[in-house]
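User:
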Amino acid sequence: MKSILLILMFLCQSLQLFGQVDDWGIPKIIDFPRLDKISLDNQGFIFLADLEGNLYQYSKEGKFLNNFSPPRQGSLSQLEAFWTVNIFTFSADLQEYRILDRFINPVSENRIPMNLINLAKAATLGNNNIIWVFDETDLSLKQFDYRRNRIIQNQPLNLIIDRSSLDIVDIKEYQNLLFLNIKDEGVFILDNQGNFIKKLNAKPIQKLGFWKGYLIYLEDDKIVFLNFQSEKVESINVPSGIKAKGILVNQNQVYFYDGNQVWIFDKSKTPIEGIF
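Assistant: Predicted structure:
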């Protein structure tokens, strides 16, 4: 009898400890085999892409709403839905970009013009009808005006960022700044004219994710919050049982994802709520 009481006391203590460490609540789950890219818009809608470049739209509760299949199938290098009006996709394999409306209807789609850009390795949508493109052939960063089909600025990155491999794995414009994630080197910040500002000591392996003034990513089973102005770093543990490869945060939810699932947590019930 005494042994049984000791075991029960141990279990109660363990459950209390678990509740203190992992107070995240129960997530909603989207099952999505072969998930390749994910992005959120500013209304809380979720956009997912599979390995063939098909797009799927879900509500913030994880309910399927809509889908779009491009005429030419190919994996996406970039999926961005956080712009107010447009969704942007880019495929390095196909050398194609596409801009869609909020209902994932194509608004503008075209191949990267080879007479202006020889080999686009990375691209992101910017303000004022431009697309930032990293041209791997001449190691240059180009501002491409897709409406007028012309280059309005060309910056040789090998002169701006010295002694770098320029193996750019991700690029994104955020808060009028351009962020370049260079493999095994860090995240480099440029201004809206392509001038170097500084390098962040961060090496995220997921696509770049932001919330307010923070770069957010996973590292060693922790969620890292890096203030890209002050460079102050905070971190908390990933919830138990979640083996994710990336994280996204918006005003109301926290999203973890891997190649087969998306976990949606109510942010007000998570430890993240106390950080922002």
